[in-house]
Amino acid sequence: MTTLRTPRLTLRRWREDDVAPMAAINADPEVMRWVGDGSARDRAATEDGIAAWEREWEQRGLGPFAVEVRETGRLAGMAGLTVPDFLPEILPAVEIGWRLGRPYWGRGLATEAARVVLDFALRDRGLARVVGVHAVGDAASEAVLRTLGMRPERETTHPAYGLPLCVHVIETRCA
Ligand SMILES: CC(C)(COP(=O)(O)OP(=O)(O)OC[C@H]1O[C@@H](n2cnc3c(N)ncnc32)[C@H](O)[C@@H]1OP(=O)(O)O)[C@@H](O)C(=O)NCCC(=O)NCCS
């Protein structure tokens, strides 16, 4: 069971009791503004999403983590790795991503989670390359990607939604 710890966060695999708090996060239009087509998701979609994230862990040995605040034990959201199947032009690739509930924004928590996820990808899983894809206009995610040391590689368009996207990348220089 893969668990990562930072000073303020625990990143762990998903549990049944994460569905309700993650559904509340996914139901917030402000949170979902830059995710996918920008629409909020209901509880059933959240349940399906968490099941899909857990399948990624089972099949690939990596996936999106549940992000828990250590002090309270509450679920703050998601941060982790996925294969960006929605964007075939950049495959094969592993993508880093995040989604936190609004009460957790503006405290450096996304950056704290993303740093330990990137370290997990590059050191623990030995990946030579990780990408980050953000919607053009999503300044917060762009700032996180830059802070991680990722560089903008290309602009493209979401194949399904027609929205402008920016692809960032980080590569290790030696084995
Ligand atoms: C993106 C997100 C994870 C950022 O979380 P956060 O914990 O507030 O981020 P941090 O506090 O670590 O801040 C990261 C950087 O973004 C900047 N930032 C935060 N919100 C911002 C905003 N609305 N506009 C511009 N910059 C912003 C911060 O100033 C910081 O920049 P710095 O490191 O240069 O000082 C959070 O807003 C979120 O979950 N949004 C909804 C889901 C989402 O859009 N996910 C990504 C797309 S799939």
TrEMBL record:
It holds the Pfam family Acetyltransf_3. GO terms for molecular function: acyltransferase activity, transferring groups other than amino-acyl groups. Residues 9-166 form the N-acetyltransferase domain. InterPro entries: Acyl_CoA_acyltransferase (IPR016181), GNAT_dom (IPR000182), N-acetyltransferase (IPR051531). PANTHER family: GNAT FAMILY, PUTATIVE (AFU_ORTHOLOGUE AFUA_3G00765)-RELATED-RELATED (PTHR43792), N-ACETYLTRANSFERASE DOMAIN-CONTAINING PROTEIN (PTHR43792:SF1). This is GNAT family N-acetyltransferase.
